[in-house]
Request: fold
Amino acid sequence: MKPVPQATSLRRAPVQRRSAERLTRILDACADLLDEVGYDALSTRAVAQRAGVPIGSVYRFFGNKRQMVDALAQRNLERFTVAVTDRLKESGAEGGWRTAMDVVLDEYLAMKRTAPGFSLVDFGNQIPVGARHAEPNHRVADRLTDLLSGYLSREPDDDLRRTFLIAVETADTLVHLAFRMAPEGDERIIQEAREMLRAYLARVLD
Reply:
């Protein structure tokens, strides 16, 4: 089964397998409908109908559509983390932080191009939820710090967290620009993003 988020936006975390599968169907339906109708036209009733569950099942997990979308964003982050971790295990330590950076960016681009609803929700970037410390790019930077610190043989201290936050903010801005310029992402802008990230991280990580 694909990862289900233990989201702070969940009213009740699924305990049984059947409940977890229902939550997965709800989030899958939410993602599909975001692509079809957008966030403003999204409704919990439409999600329930698409998922084939009673409306009460949606409200069992979520108080409103914003909480549902935030849970989808957190699931995106979990799936991204799993994909990056698996790729890094395959590549081993060869290539150091440059390999790690390419893996992170490549997996993000893959989700941007293929994951339903991702163009609107991302990791929460388009629909911010929660307090400032929970802003999506902070979530991503903290996750990458914890994930990559061992791979890079670095302490996950405040300096490394700040480094990854700057890298994530920079990549986020440039990737969004690339996808505004072309449906699949303007490769020239994406390459510029890689070069900028390499130059910045070389100064900090080498």
Notes: Residues 65-91 form the longest helix (27 residues). Residues 105 and 171 are 8 Å apart (CA to CA).
